[in-house]
Structures are given as C-alpha cells and as structure tokens.
Design brief:
elongated; 2 domains; alpha+beta; 11 helices; single chain; six-stranded mixed beta sheet
C-alpha cells in the first residue's frame, strides 16, 4: 500500500512540475511532448487511485481509514494556465482512457453527455464512443476494406437507426434502362403516344451487430497500451464483419450481400474448379460499363490466374516468372479478398461496380464493459456494437436497348451449368 501512495505522490509531483514550468516560469501552454506526458500521467494517477481503492477494501481494522481517504482524495488537477491554456479537460485523450473510464469509473462526469445517447442505462447499455475515436476505428483504406471505401454510404442521421426508403428507377424486365419511358418519332399533327416512368423503393434498415473482447484489468489500466491493442482489434473485426455481410449477407437481420442479390448476374464457368480466360472474358461482357469496375478474387484462384492462357496458348496474366503479379485483369483493378468463396465456388471471382451498393449507417459505435463473467480472474469483457445495413441499389439486372442483352454492376463466376 505504501508503495502505491509513494508512486501516486511522484505522479502528482511531476504533474505539478509540468504545470509550474509552463505557467509560472514561462507563461505558456503545454508543448506537444508535455501534453502527451500529462495525459499519460493522468491515466497513471487514475490507475493508482483504483488500485489503492482495491487495497483499501482489504485493509485490517488496525490501519487508519481516515489517513488513506486523505491520501486518495488529494487532487490531481488539470493545468491552471488561465488565459494561455486551451486544453479541453472534458474530453478523453485516448480510446484507452475512455474504455478505462467506462470500466472503472462509470460515474465520471465526462460520461454524462454520452450516457444520454446510450442503449439502456449507464454501464448496462453501454456508452457511445466519442466521435473522434469512432472515426479512428472506422478509418479504412481500400487495402483494408473493399466495400465501404467504394460504396455509396448514407450517414446515420437523426434518429440514427431509423429505416430509410430511397426511390429508384425500376429498370427491371422489359422496362429497360429508361425505366419504361418510350420515345417515338411523331409525324406533324399526329397523336403523341402516352408513356410513363416506373419507380420502385429500396429500404435500408440498420441492423445491430456486436463483437466482444476479453482484456485483463491490468491492460485496461495501461491506457496507451489498451488504446493500441483494442483499437486495432476492434477496427479489424468491424471491417471483417461488414465485408462478410456486404459480400455474402442473406438480407435477413443483416445486410444483403451481392452474392445473394437478385441484381447479380451469374456467369457459369466452363470447367469445374477452374478460372479460365474464357470465363474472365465472359464475365467482362456481362458487366455494366460506365463506372469504376473492380475485380474481387479469392486468393485461392491465384495459381489459376498465374497459369491462365488464351486460345493461342499464351500466358495472359503473368507473362514470366521474373515480374511481380500484376494488379489488374483485362485492364481493371484486381484485389484479393480473404472472405471470398474458395476456388470452384460461386463468387470466387466477381466483377463489380460498388457505387451501386448502398450502405446505411446507424448508431454506434457503443462500448460497454462487464467484470462479472471473469470477476475471479481480474478480466473484463469489452463489448462493442453498432448498427448498419446495406444492399445493391438495383433489384435485378439491366436489359440493354437491344431488348435482350442483360448486364449488371455485379457479375459473379458460378459453377458450370
């Protein structure tokens, strides 16, 4: 116990030294390095206080509770830099500090604002992650995620989880690309024919999805380490869950993926468990042009691409073993997806224009913490949940003006017919 007190005093002394140097000696705000050290010391002081609280509960009656209370209640204030200080003490400095506070200090005044936006009450429902950390968790690049960076994303709005209905042109069947509009050449004085455009509705209703991770209480007290680890794990798991649903979701309680959509055109491959040049060419002929087309393939098809030959028996994708694998196929970008079906399955290779895929974000990300499941092991279950929906903009392939050729922004390689 005494070691904890001494460590807390050292932290408080260092905080006072930083504050004194900036305010009293140099009359300035904190430097970037000082701010970083200050944030780490604040988190460390909170952790020491929590440990002292735990030890206090175990004290024998021979020790003075009053003395301990006095030590614990010693303030660790934010810098008093008056007019030159622009720090916002009501904000969390890191995601780790936010999670630590949710777990160990659910009554912290900084959670009051987000508590009003929770699902449920306080720790039972979870606390909405501050916007700056939500953006960090969802910050993605095309190398990390395929769908979200390229799709049409509709923000959460107010209320965030409300369904949204979007009117679109009905271009299915014989209505064609002009959704039923008919154009005729009219002779002078002749009657003008009647025509109409057909509309339909696409409904997006955000569904809840949740993930959890078990972390030691020791890790959670180390906010910088917790920030790095938990943010990385949350980021990867959220991307993986969304990618899987946007690709292969059934549309029941989750997004409708392109593989299950009626708007997707399936092209039957020539030979089972192969990806041949004729298959690639056939898919290319079924794609709707005009947007940024993209090939998405399972890594299991890579040997097929490397050895693919044209009818003249020439290698068409990898000309020789000295050059790296190309990033395009028929001049269009090619990315590999760990969640695509394996070689020989429907969807092991797809050709898509993801502008025609809509994503509707809902509320989240919300984080809650519970120590009850692993109470004896000093571990905490961190749960994160959010709401999202997605589906293709179209409900069926398009019929071109020739009246028979069908194309789609979503073409998948299927098994042989």
């Amino acid at each position: 116990m005494e070691k904890l007190f001494e460590e807390l005093k050292k932290v408080q002394a260092r905080l006072a030294g930083i504050n004194s140097l900036a305010k009293d000696e140099e009359n300035r705000s904190l430097t970037e390095d000082e701010e970083k050290e200050w944030d780490e010391l604040i988190v460390k002081a909170d952790g020491l206080r929590s440990q002292i609280e735990e030890e206090k509960a175990k004290l024998s009656r021979t020790q003075s509770i009053e003395d301990i209370e006095n030590l614990i209640s010693q303030p660790v204030n934010t810098p008093h830099l008056d007019s030159v200080d622009t720090r916002k003490t009501s904000e969390f400095s890191t995601l780790g500090e936010f999670i630590y506070t949710v777990r160990f200090r659910p009554g912290d005044e900084r959670l009051i604002e987000v508590r009003e936006q929770t699902f449920g009450v306080g720790a039972q429902g979870g606390f909405l992650v501050p916007e700056q950390f939500t953006k960090e968790i969802l910050s993605i690049t095309p190398q990390d995620a395929i769908f979200r960076p390229r799709a049409t994303v509709i923000p959460a709005g107010t209320p965030p989880d409300a369904a949204i209905t979007i009117p679109t042109l009905d271009q299915t069947g014989t209505k064609g690309v002009y959704a039923g509009v008919t154009v005729n050449w009219i002779a002078e004085g002749a009657d003008k024919g009647e025509t109409q455009a057909y509309l339909k509705e696409v409904k997006l209703d955000p569904n809840e999805v949740a993930g959890y991770i078990v972390a030691t209480d020791k890790l959670l007290r180390n906010a910088p380490a917790a920030t790095s680890l938990i943010q990385t794990l949350l980021r990867r798991s959220i991307i993986a869950a969304e990618e899987d649903a946007f690709l292969a979701g059934s549309g029941v309680g989750k997004p409708l993926g392109i593989l299950a959509s009626a708007a997707t055109l399936a092209y039957n491959r020539a030979t089972a468990n192969e990806v041949a040049y004729a298959d690639v060419a056939g898919m290319y002929g079924k794609a709707k042009f005009g947007g940024p087309l993209l090939w998405i393939g399972s890594q299991s098809i890579l040997p097929q691409l490397l050895t693919m030959k044209d009818p003249g028996n020439h290698y068409v994708w990898q000309p020789n073993a000295r050059e790296g694998a190309p990033g395009t196929l028929l001049g269009l970008p090619l990315v590999f997806n760990n969640q695509s079906p394996t070689l020989g399955s429907k969807g092991d290779l797809t050709l898509v224009d993801l502008q025609y895929y809509m994503i509707k974000d809902g509320a989240g990300i919300v984080i809650s913490a519970s120590e009850h499941v692993y109470f004896k092991q000093n571990k905490t279950v961190i749960k994160a949940f959010w709401n999202v929906d997605g589906q293709p903009w179209l409900s069926a392939p398009l019929t071109l003006e020739d009246g028979s050729t069908q194309v789609s922004p979503f073409v998948v390689l299927d098994v042989p017919s």
